[in-house]
Amino acid sequence: MTQSPPRSFPQSGTIGWIGTGIMGSSIVLHLLKAGYTVNVFNRTKSKTDDLIRAGAVWRSSPFDIAANSDAVFLMVGYPHDVRETVLGENGVLNGIRPGGLIVDMTTSSPSLAVEIETACRRKNVVSLDVPVSGGDVGAKKGTLSLMIGGDEKTANDLMPLWKVFGQTIVYHGPAGSGQHAKMVNQTILAGNMIGLCEGLLYARRAGLDWEKVLSSVSTGAAGSWTLSNMGPRILQGDFAPGFMTEHFLKDLRIVLDESKRMNIRLRGAELAEQFYAEAVEQGCAADGSQRLYTILERYSP
Amino acid sequence: MTQSPPRSFPQSGTIGWIGTGIMGSSIVLHLLKAGYTVNVFNRTKSKTDDLIRAGAVWRSSPFDIAANSDAVFLMVGYPHDVRETVLGENGVLNGIRPGGLIVDMTTSSPSLAVEIETACRRKNVVSLDVPVSGGDVGAKKGTLSLMIGGDEKTANDLMPLWKVFGQTIVYHGPAGSGQHAKMVNQTILAGNMIGLCEGLLYARRAGLDWEKVLSSVSTGAAGSWTLSNMGPRILQGDFAPGFMTEHFLKDLRIVLDESKRMNIRLRGAELAEQFYAEAVEQGCAADGSQRLYTILERYSP
């Protein structure tokens, strides 16, 4: 009888996790269940309570997380949060050992991902940008779509770990490419949301029965995830998130920043940015992105 | 042994068909195969040659079609063609018997559909507006989606006939409602096309591999018929129609006209109208609607 050698990271080991919102918490639970030791930090400590009860270990700062983990994952709010968490004085990069790994799963700026990788490389640290799609439901079920940018070998080596919470796992290229892929997703989604909400507004004003319209159009050329999933919610007046208006606005602003940098003009995304900025201004920041419908109605009193 | 009584319209009888383009011709072939006698007229006579070989009967005008048919169907180009064909001096309404039926399957103006119904009613003629979606493939396979506006009883009575070439058959309401439903379809589609083309442009400029992007995004919240069907065509540089740019422009202009009438503002549809107007101006009128991609590229030299 041979004895198995002790498994090591990424098959097992200690993971640091920063940012325990709805999505982050679900992923941490998957990691704990898969046998990882997980250190957690969150700005609002109470949001880690359930995770600590489930076996996670509280650490008091990103620095502290980094000093006690094989790899550090983060899923925080905005690019400036990512910057502060990774590059700040009490941040991950100052605490991590050489040879360590930083994985940013926040939907954030591709340019910032490149900047972080450059800073990491100087310290012999590897970084990956791995935004996800699939929402809270995908996080809970462990069926997220992972869009990976950064070092390809590292991305491949981590496959056992990705599979703990991901289903569609795609490597997109060098640092920033994961974020770019996510921005493509958001750009397409923005157009689909505008089309749906304008179509719905037209249908209502024309006196059509939306159920009948759905049955006419949803299986044809106008069909989409947005139409089938957001259409019914809007009609029920259900504006709960799903995916929050303020986060979509953040993403659209990243899309437009990067577009400018790449010298392309995306007028549909610009229009969506205006609509979502208005939604946030109207106090709908924490509503679902389907709130766009109400904003469009305001143009049509 | 009992003998069946002779069937009558809409189970059998003589149909007049005006407009034998790609879609119209496919539908006429289905009607002939189903046992109907079909009179045909088309501005360009040669486009009826195949149908006449298949058993259709040439008639020399819309008036002549109407004088010799139980019901008259039309599928022509623009609202002004519909108007001329139905209401013109040598048109259908002047030739049809009282108690007759006119079915406009052109994607045309809802307001015109109402105007036609009013004119028909004065002559004791019934009219329906029945635009379709599903394209040339749907017409060939007999799997079109039919959006019906007008008299509900007539729409129901015609079910055996609709089923000859339609699969999704939905009654939407009084005259113009079929056209309105189709305009909703086109409004949604316009947003989806903008989202797709902008996403694709972003992806290319960011240096992403589109196959990989598709595998990351097409099964999630950004997924759509447009993404899965038009994305690959654009990448292959395939701009053949499908659905012609100039026809999409026509539809978008109807959407905007009706929006104005209904006092709603659809800024996404306005943007699409500008893009498709530019496409037509650039000589791309007969290209597929995916030509939008090339137009967007022009903004981003």
Summarize the structure.
Two copies of one chain form a homodimer. In chain A, strand 1, helix 1 and strand 2 form a beta-alpha-beta unit.
Report on this model:
The structure is a homodimer. Chain A is α/β, with parallel strands linked by helices. Chain A has 2 domains: about 15-175, 3-Layer(aba) Sandwich (Rossmann fold), CATH 3.40.50; about 180-295, N-(1-d-carboxylethyl)-l-norvaline Dehydrogenase, domain 2 (Orthogonal Bundle). Chain A is about 50% helix and about 15% strand. The first copy, chain A, has 15 helices and 9 strands. Chain A has helices at about 20-35, 50-55, 60-65, 80-85, 90-95, 110-120, 135-140, 150-155, 160-165, 175-205, 210-215, 225-235, 245-260, 265-280, 290-300; strands spanning about 15-20, 35-40, 55-60, 70-75, 100-105, 125-130, 130-135, 145-150, 165-175. In chain A, helix 2 (about 50-55) links the parallel strand 2 and strand 3. In chain A, helix 1 runs parallel beside helix 7 (about 135-140), helix 10 (about 175-205) crosses helix 12 and helix 14 (about 265-280) crosses helix 15. The longest helix of chain A has 29 residues, at about 175-205. Residues about 1-5 of chain A have low confidence and may be disordered. The interface between A and B is large, with 71 and 71 residues.
Descriptors:
homodimer; 301 residues; alpha/beta; Rossmann fold; N-(1-d-carboxylethyl)-l-norvaline Dehydrogenase, domain 2; 2 domains; 9-stranded mixed β-sheet; 15 helices; elongated; disordered N terminus
Topology, pairings included?
Two copies of one chain form a homodimer.
Chain A: E1 14-18, H1 22-33, E2 37-41, H2 49-53, E3 57-58, H3 62-67, E4 71-74, H4 79-87, H5 92-95, E5 101-104, H6 110-122, E6 126-129, E7 132-133, H7 135-141, E8 144-150, H8 152-157, H9 159-165, E9 166-173, H10 177-205, H11 210-217, H12 225-235, H13 245-261, H14 267-281, H15 292-298
Parallel strand pairs in A: 1-2, 1-4, 2-3, 4-5, 5-6, 8-9
Antiparallel strand pairs in A: 6-8, 7-8
